[in-house]
Amino acid sequence: MKKHTLLVGLLFCTNATASLIQGHEIYTMFGAGFNNDNTQFQFTPGFQISNRWYLESTMLFDYDIDMYSYSSNSKLNQSTDSFSVALTPLYMYPVSEYFTSYAKLGGYFAKYKSTRNDESNNSVQLLEKYSEDGITFGVGLQYTTTGPTMGETMLSARLGADWYNKGYTPKHLDKRPVIGIQMGLVF
Description:
- The protein is mainly β.
- The chain has one helix and eight strands; from the N terminus they run H-E-E-E-E-E-E-E-E.
- It has one domain: Beta Barrel (Porin).
- Helices cover 11% and strands 67% of the residues.
- Strands 1-2-3-4-5-6-7-8 form an eight-stranded antiparallel β-barrel.
- The longest helix has 20 residues, at 2-21.
- GO terms for molecular function: porin activity.
- Pfam families: OmpA_membrane.
- Keywords: Ion transport, Porin, Signal, Transmembrane, Transport.
């Protein structure tokens, strides 16, 4: 009985989701985000809510290793691992047949971890581990083909700048934006 109830519930949720997104665009974009000397992998899925409004989530992945040598028999590797996810409503305004400008405002959550590995004695030391949340906003320009390139799928490319406000006050605003270059598919 429980299996049948679970199956009926799953079919209902799948049908409701398909009905909700029918006739609306869904997109996925992959690319890189640049901030100072740091390059991060970006992944952005999103879907259309109404005529010009979208809801999207941008994820940034970063892994950085710095190597230090203090003596001939001591090598230190310091690594920093970070992940952040933002959820933002997005407004797109058509500039031409192919280009749309966009603006977005929402929230984000990030986790950071920094470790030091001493190769001479195989020890790993945790330096820092913390998380933060705050407000994010961004602007950009997006190019989308007008007709399908593969089946019903259109090709899209985006150039944008996102700012991350650590905390919820203007004094914590990171003045250097993450410049993102992404390509993806619109379904």
